[in-house]
Design goal:
By secondary structure, the protein is of the alpha/beta class. The chain folds into 3 domains: 81 residues, Orthogonal Bundle (Arc Repressor Mutant, subunit A), CATH 1.10.10; 86 residues, D-Maltodextrin-Binding Protein, domain 2 (3-Layer(aba) Sandwich), CATH 3.40.190; 95 residues, D-Maltodextrin-Binding Protein, domain 2 (3-Layer(aba) Sandwich). Helix content is 41%, strand content 23%. It contains 10 helices and 12 strands. The strands form 4 sheets. A 5-stranded mixed beta sheet has the order 4-3-5-12-6, sandwiched between helices. Strand 1 and strand 2 form a beta hairpin. Helix 1 packs across helix 4 and helix 4 crosses helix 7. The radius of gyration is 22 Å and the shape is elongated. Belongs to the LysR transcriptional regulatory family. GO terms for molecular function: DNA binding; DNA-binding transcription factor activity. This is LysR family transcriptional regulator.
Amino acid sequence: MVMDLVAEDLQAFAVFARHRNFTRAGVELHVSQPALHARIRKLEARLGTQLYVKHGRQLHLTDAGERLAAFANDTQDRTAHFLRTLDAAPPRPLVLIAGSGSYLYLLADPLRRYLTRGRELRLLTGDAAETLTAVRGGTADVGVTALGIPPDDLDCELLAQFPQTLIVRSDHRLAGRRTVRLKDLQDEALVVPPKDRPHRQQLERSMLDQGLRWSVAVEAEGWELLVHFVRLGIGPAVVNGSVRTTSAVRKIPVKDLPPVRYYVVTRPGRDDRVDGLRRALT
């Protein structure tokens, strides 16, 4: 059945899989959103399987969708490689996916050096789950993300490790401490990420394991906004130690929380260009 697919079908699905958004994918493909939606539906009918599902406002690839995206990207890579041997086409830009924290605090200098060498690079943003899915599916060549346990099916190289830290204003009761433990946060109102974020979930589990009481001062998305609310005096926050702060905020390591480890993630069997990007980031 896959042999019946035409190159245009594979290209359309590869772009859709990368964006997981019909409007943005349609813009890149220069087709309307309804036309692309109809094309993907016809593709599902031809293959006899569902390629994506909708959860709330987000679209997620099914297992079949991830496999087709990987096949589509691999086909495009092989075609591009063959054409390069004929001097018929330039190589496609590599694709890097990482979270906002990685781009802000870990990758700025390596990316600047990489791009100043005249190399093309397409950047995507995503959390850990989205990063692993994109690399597995071939919609990204390289991912950078924080992982608790690296998966066995991908090549994961440790990039950096940071302690988890408590950030407080200089007038907070804990500001003079060199280190703290979670029990020191008993009855604190904390600035935290939304409930579905992995950092929040780990913090909640750790506090629950120790039987500690705490409350939510405010929920905020993104490290910079958490730091901003701490500076305003809304409450302290537990953040990744890579997060940059100002002199108005104290950073204190939390001794009984595990460190945050960032990895560079690629598929096995990568080519020399992907290896070059991987080395540039590490």
